[in-house]
Amino acid sequence: MPTGKVGGLHGGMGQLVSEGNYYYFEMDNVEGFVQNGQEVTFELASNGSIKVIYGDGAKKPTNAPKPKQKENTAKADNRELLTEDK
């Protein structure tokens, strides 16, 4: 997730600066607590606008590692049993 710095937070609106890009947001898009000058992580929507900003106390989604599949180490037993004919 990208990170940025909150600035110009006033009256339920604010600005986020990240890698030279400026994004405007409303407090409806904020999870947790944010203040001016704070470094936050955020997500962008497909149209390039702020989808959500994760402030202090917000539950950030984690990329849980996928469970590893066990290799099939059991081999098929294709041996023929040798028996004596009586």
Show the helix and strand layout:
Blueprint: E1 3-10, E2 13-18, E3 21-26, E4 30-31, E5 39-44, E6 50-54
Parallel strand pairs: 4-6
Antiparallel strand pairs: 1-2, 1-5, 2-3, 5-6
Describe this protein's structure.
This protein is mainly β and 86 residues long. The protein has a domain at 3-54: OB fold (Dihydrolipoamide Acetyltransferase, E2P) (Beta Barrel), CATH 2.40.50. The chain is 0% helix and 38% strand. It has no helices and 6 strands. It has strands at 3-10, 13-18, 21-26, 30-31, 39-44, 50-54. It has a 6-stranded mixed sheet with strand order 3-2-1-5-6-4, with no helix packed on it. It is rod-shaped. The termini are far apart.
Estimate the helix proportion, in percent.
under 10%
The low-confidence parts are none
Describe the largest sheet. Answer: 6 strands, mixed
Q: Count every beta strand, where a strand is a DSSP E run of 2 or more residues.
A: 6
Identify the CATH class of the domain at 3-54.
Mainly Beta
* Global Rg: 27 Å
Total of DSSP H or I helical runs spanning 4+ residues: 0
Structural class: mainly beta
pLDDT averaged residue by residue: 86
Q: What is the CATH architecture assignment of the domain at 3-54?
A: Beta Barrel
Distance between the termini: 75 Å
CATH topology of the domain at 3-54: OB fold (Dihydrolipoamide Acetyltransferase, E2P)
